[in-house]
Amino acid sequence: MSEFPTKARVVIIGGGVVGASSLYHLAKKGWTDCVLLEKNELTAGSTWHAAGNVPTFSTSWAIMNMQRYSTELYSRLGEEVDYPMNYHVSGSIRLAHSKERMQEFQRAMSMGRYQGIPMEMWTPEQAKERYPFLETHDLEGVLYDPTDGDIDPAQLTQALAKGARDMGQKIIRFCPATGVTQHDDGTWTVHTEKGDIDCDYVVNAAGYYAQRVGEWFKPYGGRTVPAMVMSHQYLLTDEIPEVEAWSKENGGKLPLLRDVDISYYLRQEKHGFNLGPYEPNCKGHWMTEDDPMPEDFSFQLWNDDLDRIEDIVTDAMERVPLMATSGVGRVINGPIPYAPDGLPLIGPMPGVKNAFEAHTFTFGIAQGGGAGKVLAEWIVDGATEWDMWAVDPRRYTDYTDQDYCNQKGMEVYGNEYAMHFPHHEWPAARDKKLSPVHAKVKELGGVMGVYNGWERANWFAQPGDDTSEESAHTWGRSGPWEQRIKEECEAVRDHCGVLDLPGFSRFVVKGEGAAEALRGLVTGGLPKVGRINLVYIADHRGRILTEMSCMRLGEDDFVMITAATAQWHDRDILRNAMPAGVTVEDVTTTRDTLIVTGPKSREILSGLTDADLSLGWLTHQAATVAGQPAHLIRVSFAGELGWEVHALNEHMPAIYDAILAAGAKPFGMYALNSLRIEKGYRAWKGDLSTDYSLLEGGLERFVKFDKPQDFPGKAALLAEKQRGVKKSFVTLVVEAGDCDAPYMSCIWQGDQIVGETTSGAWGYRVGKSVALGMIKADLANPGTELEVEIYGEKCRAVVQEDQPLWDPANERLRA
Ligand SMILES: NCCCC(=O)O
């Protein structure tokens, strides 16, 4: 028996597939002195009872990347680590019952092909040929993914563990971690029942116990992990002779079937079926005080509850009538952790240095391989190959109380395969964070959306407009909102609009040395006192980490303003970069912002404020508005004359009322998105992400190569400048149909994919569908004709001049 280790570079808490994959990938990157702790046997939590499906399908680029990587790894892993596994690449068919579902499949297929996954669209007849037991009369079509399949979850975990051990890593089973202590130098001691282990980094990979483990990190800046636990059942039928005969004849398994509109997967298991429903009347566990999470639930299941899934089972038997010829052999009803959006948490632990997370996986087997790669990159490189914001733990902030997690977990589970339409807002757990003028915004017809937990108006409905959830079940721009967005954009263009923007993240960065520290962090220059600048922060590769507005109040006194969703991401970047003596105070929740913009905005504000409205673009000043103290900033994300009015929450209702009474028209986030795209203004985690460098993103004017301070990414950006960029940011005018280009639509030249869109919308001021995107640098010339593939339809697109489509000389906003 080997000695208990007292030191390690990394300690991973949790021995499911994700913990094992993380250990394996750390070793692959050369960190071979790491330890994994498992309180029971490997796989004892959710891994052992997982169904084992390995899909690549996703409409998220990042998730698809992660899942695709898993399939590639699993294909070679057995041989690589000398641990043969049952991995069946059977292919899969996904059934479409509607035109909208077909559009979703087209989009996924296009992304898949861009990633090298040869997905195909099939007719129902083609599906029937490949899957003779399938009832197809009511289907619109089928998506076929040849790379899909299933793997034995326990064998996979053991293979990863063996590979890790063979490279020197240690796995200690039956060794519960009992707590952590962080030392002044940022290193850790992980306490266990068998002794302490000192380490540089800790990883919480504790599956459905991640919330409990997460509590240990609270004294060091941590928060309650946003998660809950669902009961997921799948049933295994007895063997069916026809399935056996088909398998023998065809030398393999039937393709894995997902009837996503009904909400289940069905795959061949030996010579029977494995049916896994995601039922709408689902059940969470361990959510209330009278149903506490047990200290240990290793290798345990709940009793089956077939009533809950009866409707779906009946439907599946109609879809594959052969199923009805067999009895139910076994039901597996086990705990699966759910985050509020159904996606895992992989990356830096918010608020805590040298701690990482890889937990709360609902599709842990499909994602485990890729998750280990991503986590190892975070720890070893401090950055990931693909932008992984979709699963970044910092995407959640302080609104995710347990009630929120429970409601959202149930909603996501019951809609596991639902389509996520661009104008649809999910209804569960709303109103967690309200603006001080929320009631007024609602009274004006605000149809609300959620931004980092804050309710903001997406658009303003008029009496009689359809604001039902169902009305938003479309990928298109047509809908009850369209006319209203147009009117809102026109009001901003011709008169003055006002948008309430609660939750705009803001940090007061203050103290001797603040300016110097910021100069060493951002890529560009800082504003003079009394002015505001856009600043960018890059990672060591020169890729875009974030964008902030930097408002300078004094020599060493700044307010950094950033996207609502970036709150904890940017907070941690600022806090980690500032030296002792410089404070970073998050004042997001105590203040509200109004965007007041349009050619009449000066006229409207002049009757309400003592501010000097002649001060130019990118200035700011303290003033009163409607008799209330406020701060006015001369900027406009809409690209018109305008100001942002910032004020403490208690002062905003009077300001908002006065601005409305003076004639400003309320507008919403959808209009703002359209207006900013016409100006080529980038949005964070769409157009601005770590998939692109600042130079690729067309942001060289925000990089000050000649400043004396070093800053993250400086050397990489200089090198890139010398060798030239591979990709370039462009604006495209698209001859689109009813749908504007969503994020990650493929851009084609002939039969070659030459780039991707990063956002798209109808521009109501220019009367065109506009897309922002990244294309091969040698094609980024005005007039180049390309095609953008939008939900399967290739639309002609033309590269525009390198200047805004609307008001190219910026005359309107400087007026
Ligand atoms: N265990 C989750 C698998 C779900 C799916 O294959 O679609």
TrEMBL record:
Designated name of the protein: 4-methylaminobutanoate oxidase (Formaldehyde-forming)
Domain FAD dependent oxidoreductase central: 381-435
Domain Aminomethyltransferase C-terminal: from-to ranges: 727-806
Domain FAD dependent oxidoreductase: 9-378
Keywords assigned by UniProt, alphabetized: Oxidoreductase
Name of the gene this protein is made from: mlr_5
Short name of any one Pfam family annotated for the protein: GCV_T
GO MF annotation terms: 4-methylaminobutyrate oxidase (demethylating) activity
The GCVT N-terminal domain, residue ranges: 438-707
InterPro entries assigned: FAD-dep_OxRdtase (IPR006076), FAD/NAD-bd_sf (IPR036188), FAO_M (IPR032503), GcvT/YgfZ/DmdA (IPR028896), GcvT/YgfZ_C (IPR029043), GcvT_C (IPR013977), GCVT_N (IPR006222), TrmE/GcvT-like (IPR027266)
Enzyme class, spelled out: oxidoreductase
Family label: Belongs to the GcvT family.
EC code(s) of this entry: 1.5.3.19
